[in-house]
Amino acid sequence: RILEKLDYKQMKISIKATEVPLMVEAYRKLSDKIPYPLHIGVTEAGTIKQGTIKSAMGIGALLLDGIGDTLRVSLTGDPIHEIEVGKSILSNLGLRNFGATMISCPTCGRCQVNLFDMASIVEERLASISAPIKVAVMGCVVNGPGEAREADFGIAGGKGQGIVFRKGEVLKTVPESELVDTLFREIDQYLETIDKE
């Protein structure tokens, strides 16, 4: 109120806390009481693993409530990770598009491919794609295409081979060793067609 009495109203308020429930509760209470923009974040969130989880929970909860104008992910480590996590939070909430996204399933008894390596390779290669496409990496052909039918493109593993699909429809069956490269050939062809439009 002191600043308002001095007729200073160009401000942004931040009340970050290290505990997610406290941070969320404080911002929810404050957002109803003031007309100023809010800078949100979980301060001193921790290392990349723990800090990412805490930040996603706290920042995500507030953004889903429509609270927050700017954000800061606070991690112990390279500041580049803070930017990546912040972008990922915004992207996964559907608030901003920062390029391609990937979904992948947990492994189960039907998975007969090295899903972890395959998903890691796909995620790394998707980093250079700026188009807002969703790509699925699924462990089995039994559930993969159906569970990931909203994905623009995907792959699903099988015994020594797998499928490449688009919006749940199978495009090709290829040897396991060719799955990732075939997937990206399909993606590249698609991106070329939309670039021409």
Description:
By secondary structure, the protein is an alpha/beta fold. The chain folds into 2 domains: 2-92; 101-196, 2-Layer Sandwich (Sulfite Reductase Hemoprotein, domain 1). It contains 7 helices and 7 strands, in the order ααβαβαβαβαβββα. The chain has helices at residues 2-5, 20-31, 48-64, 79-92, 115-126, 144-147, 179-196, and strands at 39-40, 70-71, 101-104, 134-138, 153-157, 161-166, 169-175. Strands 3-4-5-6-7 form a 5-stranded mixed beta sheet, with helices on one face. It has a two-stranded parallel sheet with strand order 1-2. Helix 2 runs parallel beside helix 3.
| CATH superfamily placement of the largest domain | Sulfite Reductase Hemoprotein, domain 1
Question: Biggest sheet, in brief?
Answer: 5 strands, mixed
Query: What letter string, H or E per element, gives the SSE order?
Result: HHEHEHEHEHEEEH
Q: What gyration radius follows from the Cα positions, in whole Å?
A: 21 Å
Structural class comes to: alpha/beta
Per DSSP, what share of the residues sits in E-state strands of 2 or more residues? 15-25%
CATH architecture designation of the largest domain? 2-Layer Sandwich
**Can you tell me the CATH topology of the largest domain?**
Sulfite Reductase Hemoprotein, domain 1
- In terms of per-residue confidence, which ranges show pLDDT below 50 for 5 or more consecutive residues? none
Question: In the CATH hierarchy, what is the class of the largest domain?
Answer: Alpha Beta
